[in-house]
Amino acid sequence: MTDKIEKVSIIVSKGSLEGIYPALIMANGARAEGIEANLFFTFFGLDAIHKARHEHIKLATVGNPGLHLATWAGGLPGLSSVMTHYMAHKMEALDIPSIPEFVEMIADTGAGLYACQASVDLFGMEKSDFIDQVNGIITVGEFYDLAAGGQIIFT
């Protein structure tokens, strides 16, 4: 018999629908099971918690093998917006919340939301750029301290 997972720390590094939603779904599922969950947003994953960007996350259409499109077709003007709208409609029909709603809901369950200090510095951001639910901007070492004793999941 395996031990029950008690804590997960999820690294969110991509700033697209298909990069952010898996992390949110996993964090939500963890909290629903009573598992401690922390989300560490780094690089373009910061868009999920950025005040000016979190409502404008798009589906990546260029080089996305899951769409079964030729790479050149993914780059057609407007295709990313059309596909994002299509996915949003499908998710709404399934009662899947938008990214801003999902992040707020997960934060309300007690999950920790953290921005990566190195990425924040790299992109010239500061705490005021992020939504109120962000617990802090932390270093990789501080993330490892938070993650100690649990599972680290990279999406």
Automatic annotation (TrEMBL):
InterPro entries to which the protein is assigned, alphabetical: DsrE2-like (IPR032836), DsrEFH-like (IPR027396)
* Coiled-coil stretches noted in the UniProt entry, renumbered to this chain: none
Q: Which Pfam families does the record cross-reference, listed alphabetically? A: DrsE_2
What Gene3D superfamilies does this protein map onto? DsrEFH-like
Fetch the SUPFAM superfamilies from UniProt. Answer: DsrEFH-like
Against PANTHER family, the record matches this protein to: CONSERVED WITHIN P. AEROPHILUM, PEROXIREDOXIN FAMILY PROTEIN
Write down what this protein is called.
Peroxiredoxin family protein
